[in-house]
TrEMBL record:
Pfam families: DUF3244
Lineage, broadest ranks: Bacteria, Pseudomonadati, Bacteroidota, Bacteroidia, Bacteroidales
UniProt protein name: DUF3244 domain-containing protein
Gene3D superfamilies according to UniProt: 2.60.40.3080
InterPro entries referenced in this protein's UniProt entry, alphabetically: DUF3244
Length: 128
């Protein structure tokens, strides 16, 4: 009886390890990257508004501008290696969408700098 119960527990633990690997894989679903503003915006009791929305689809980063921003500097950096993936200035209009493919894995930071807005967000890309 003791062997059967130990075998049963072992099988339960083993089946749990198989599904844990699925959680470690990069999801192909759309994930939103929270953007934190660094400009002096007053604190309200409503959701934090950002003129920029960032989403991840696998290893493609989609940047969506909700307001027109002149000369906005977009920087994507690998935090672990300090490698700059993208450093580019845009004259963004409402609805401008920028897709950036990120090759590699690790922790990344995206930052935005314009005359009227500054913000940043952090996200992970997992290796396949």
């Amino acid at each position: 009886m003791k062997r059967i119960s130990l075998l049963f527990i072992f099988l339960i633990l083993l089946s749990g390890l198989g599904t844990a690997g699925d959680f470690l894989k990069q999801s192909n679903k759309k994930r939103k990257v929270p953007i934190k503003s660094t400009t002096g915006v007053p604190v309200f009791r409503s959701p934090i508004y950002s003129p920029v929305q960032v989403f991840i689809y696998g290893n493609v980063l989609m940047v969506n501008f909700q307001e027109p921003l002149k000369n906005v500097l977009v920087k994507i950096e690998n935090i672990e290696t300090n490698e700059i993936i993208l450093l580019k200035s845009y004259d963004a209009q409402i609805g401008t969408v920028v897709d950036v493919s990120i090759y590699g894995s690790g922790q990344f930071q995206i930052s935005f700098s314009a005359d009227t807005y500054e913000g940043y967000g952090e996200f992970y890309i997992y290796g396949s």
